[in-house]
């Protein structure tokens, strides 16, 4: 039995349900792998180095890491969790923020990586706004209900999670998806990467991981309520009603047109990799052709 350590980009939520379905139903075990899943608040960006064999993170964080990291700790993307980038800006409805340029003059929470500003700055300025007029508040948001209206007016979120957290808590919010304004921002997020040493030397292990995960996400797409209940078993601190509502939404985003999970489309990855190089976030264009990702483990 081969043990794989997987580090999530955040604490476990409905972005990750398929992994827990595969774990609960024994899909990993049946293919000879023991998957250990760890997730925590504020995980995005620091979780690549060291023990993890599999890492969940947004494409921009992966590209920066790939650009800076040599040798044994290098990674390659092998899957994407959803077939669209389900991220964007949430705000209380009273703030009147319905598009990127309307962030000017508002308090936007942000985390430390420079690519955050490359992405959001691009969106605001291209929409006719002025990113220099956005009031930036440094904060890694854990509880969205404690942040909006208090520390910040707007937060970059995954809709499938924080939108439903706010809705479940009774708040009336606005939301816009970044990808709805600019196709280049439909990047792969969250994506899944494996250490390159495993991709090269233990390809059968990565293939088994992808195959079992695929079945877990297929099951979650077919029966969202059952999937939410399975996730609740691993995250009992979340309200089951919240998980069911969030899961009903995100289950529709997991699979491609062929009914499978995880495949990375060149347009999504490569377009954004070129964007990151253009903005000076990476020194090179880490496209699929240049080893940024592979779909070889699917199918």
From TrEMBL:
InterPro entries named in the record: NMT1/THI5, SsuA/THI5
Source organism, top-level taxon: Bacteria
Any one of the GO BP annotations: thiamine biosynthetic process
Domain called SsuA/THI5-like: residue spans: 13-227
PANTHER family tied to this protein: 4-AMINO-5-HYDROXYMETHYL-2-METHYLPYRIMIDINE PHOSPHATE SYNTHASE THI11-RELATED, THIAMINE BIOSYNTHESIS PROTEIN HI_0357-RELATED
Protein's name in the database: NMT1/THI5-like protein
Species per Swiss-Prot/TrEMBL record: Christensenella minuta
